[in-house]
Amino acid sequence: MGKPLFLLGAGASIDAGLFDTNRLTREIYKILCNDHYKVPGKVFGYVVAKILARKVRQGGSPFDEVNVEEAYDGVERLILRDRDLTSEFVSSWDPFLDALQPKFDKEKFIRSLEKSIHIDSRHSLRGQFSITFDRRNIRDVAEEIARLETSSAFTSQANILTYLTNALLLCLRHNPKRMMYMKKLVDIICYAGGDIGSLNYDTVTEDALKSRSISYDYGLSSWSEKKIVSFVGSRADIRLMKLHGSMNWFGDGDEISVQTPEPGQKPMLVFGGGGGKLRPDGPFLQLRHEFERQLLATNAFVVIGYSFGDDHLNAIIRRWVSTRRRAKMIIVDPQPIRYAPKTLGTPFTLGKDRKLQKKTVDITHIRKKTAVAVDDIKEMIDQPIDLSVPPNLTGVLPDALIRVIV
Description:
alpha/beta, 8-stranded parallel β-sheet, 14 helices, globular
C-alpha cells in the first residue's frame, strides 16, 4: 500500500482557532475598514456586495456567505482590469474605483500655500522681518497634501492587494492552547510514515511538529541554487509540501527566504481562485508536481478539511483515483460531499453491460471536525483495504460505495 500521503485543507486548522474561508471574508473587511485610508476596505466591501448581487440574480440568497478567495479575485480583477485583454471590449467600466480616488487640486494647493504665509519686510533695513500664518489656508494646504498622498497610495499598482494580503496574515494567527488535536494528528502521520501536502498558509502544522520534536522539510533546500523542489537526501521525518505557500515564506520572483524576509521581499502566497493557483514564479508549480508524484506513488490518501474546490488539484486527485486498482482514501469533513466522478474520478470499474464490476478505491468519509476525528483517522489507516461490494447495493455510484462514519 505504501506510506500514506496526507492533504490538509482549511478545515484542518479551524479547530486551532482560525477562520473558515467565509468568516475570513468578514474579518479581513473589518481590518481593512480600520485602516487610515479606508480605501482598501471600501473596494473590498464593494466587490463583496457585487458578488452577492450576482448570486441573487442567479437565484441565490442575499444573505449567503462570500468565500474570501472569490472576493480577492474580484478585487484583483477590478484594480488590475487594464491588464486584461477583455478591457479592450468594455466601453465603460464601473466608475466606482475612479470615484474613490481623491483628486489633487494643484491650483488650490499653490493658492493656499501663497496665502498661508505672510512676510512683512517693512523693517528689512533694520534686519527685522515679521512672519504671520493663516491657519485656514495652512489647513487647505494640509488637506491637498493628504489627497496627494492618498492618491499616490491608491494608484500604486497592486497596493490594495498588499493591504489585503497583510490583513490575511493578521487573521492567520492560531491559538496555541487549541493545538492538542493537531499534535495527535502529526503523531499519527509520523507513526504511519506519511508525508503532508498542505493548502494552508498558517503554521499550525509546523508548530505541532516542533512541539513533538518531529523534523520536517519544505523541499526548498535546492531552490536558491537550482530552482528545483527536491527532497533527495533529506533526513527529515516528514516532507511538508505547502502547495499555496506559507505565511513564513517571503520572496521576490524566484527568490525565497523562510522565516526572515530580505529587503523588498513579500509573503509568498498563492491567493485567489482557480486561475491564480497556477502561479509561474516561485516554487509553486514544482511543489504541485512533487505532490502529484508522491501521490501517484502511494495507494493510501488521507484528505482532511479540503472541500474539493480547487479544479487543478481535483484533476490530480482524479488521476490518482483513475489509475488505482487497490487503494484507500479517507476523507475528513463534517459537511456532506458530492462524490461526482468529475470531482473524484471513478473509484470502480463497470462491465460491458454497464453494471458495477468491482470497487478499486476503498473510500471512507469521516463526517466530523478534525479535532474529534483523530481517533477515527488512526483506526481507518490501520484497517486493511476493503474492496468488497455490499450485497443488494442501492443508490447512485459512487455515493453508494462510500463508507460514512458520523
